[in-house]
Design a protein that fits this description.
Helix content is 46%, strand content 2%. By secondary structure, the chain is an all-alpha fold.
């Protein structure tokens, strides 16, 4: 089981890396975006103490066009993965203490409370459940699109009722906060998976120090 969980964690990281593979359409008009008006080393997310961080030179060597096009692609991937990681981290913490009421799979007499937290859920959720999630993710990818000429991660869904003008100080601060939180969440969820493997299946073992 430990080997299986380790393989799952490695697979998850490999799947994340696959998002950097070249897309069929690789060029976007840099002139249509306000973000292209300044150098990438002064962009949103370039914050102390690390500052601009591109040790592998991906912006110059990337397959999506020039520096601006590569930056927009990689930033879009970063924002998307950060949002997923924030949801996953929150989900791990919530499910450790709460579960939905009712049946996940009535035909199998499987309740939501029967599904363990963490990687162990991979062995419990039926194949039909994973298929439904895969379809939902696929539909989301096809329907919800990046808005042309807007900041990477802007899908036109708004800011939970708040209005933010493009490039306003309020928007720039909010985008910086989102990117930083997303980066932390990506490290956090991978750390949770690693901890579960190290502690032989025990989820969030480190939280015992708080209780």
């Amino acid at each position: 089981m430990t080997r299986l969980l380790a393989a799952v964690a490695v697979g998850a990281m490999a799947a994340s890396a696959s998002a950097f593979a070249p897309a069929a359409s690789t060029k976007q008009s840099a002139a249509t975006t306000a973000l292209s008006a300044k150098p990438v080393n002064e962009e949103i997310g370039v914050l102390p103490p690390v500052g601009f961080f591109d040790p592998l030179g991906l912006l110059k060597a990337g397959p999506y066009g020039g520096v601006e096009e590569n930056f927009r692609h990689y930033r879009g991937v970063e924002v998307k993965h950060g949002r997923i990681a924030m949801a996953a981290t929150l989900g791990m913490l919530v499910q450790q203490n709460y579960h939905f009421q009712g049946y996940l799979a009535p035909s199998l007499d499987l309740k939501f409370e029967d599904v363990p937290n963490g990687l162990k859920a991979l062995d419990v959720v039926p194949a039909a459940g994973w298929a439904q999630m895969a379809v939902l993710i696929g539909v989301h990818e096809l329907v919800v699109k990046q808005r042309e000429g807007k900041a990477p991660g802007d899908f036109g869904t708004g800011y939970f009722g708040f209005t933010m003008d493009d490039q306003s100080s309020k928007q720039l601060r909010a985008l910086n906060v989102e990117i930083q939180n997303g980066r932390l969440a990506m490290l956090g969820i991978l750390g949770m998976f690693a901890s579960e493997i190290v502690h032989k299946g025990e989820v969030l073992a480190e939280t015992k120090i708080f209780g």
